[in-house]
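Quick check before the chapter quiz. The format below is the same one you will see on the exam, so make sure you can read both the input and the output lines.
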Amino acid sequence: MSDTTTTPRPVLDSLVGSSATRHHVVGPRDSATAWENDVDVLATPVLLWLGEVTAMDVLREEIAAPWMTLGLNHDSAHVAPTPVGEEITVTATLTGVDGKILTFSVEARDSRAVILRGVHGRAVVNRDAFVRKLAERA
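Here is the expected output.
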């Protein structure tokens, strides 16, 4: 998919080292029981999603139409269980920019320990071009 537009892609190199933090109370919808598991604990897909949206928070003031970011990959480990009702803190730090590819370090903690460590990749893309590509696949 090509990023063709009259508005140049944002240059984000100066943001390397910037971070965002998000607090989240684990609720029933976040439980592994909502993901076909029988243990009432924070589900890994929810934790990965929280890492993604926290990475997006790092760029919230810098990415504007017609640009957006898309998640590309996760290389993360969910290393400890967190019960429903517990508050977690998720931090994402932009660690690299290579053209349109962004790399983030992501960590989450509950009141007892680190529960997630990893790397998340995102790409800066033209939203209109992405929507056109999606329409072609529909």
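If your answer matched, good. Helices lie at 44-59, 127-137.
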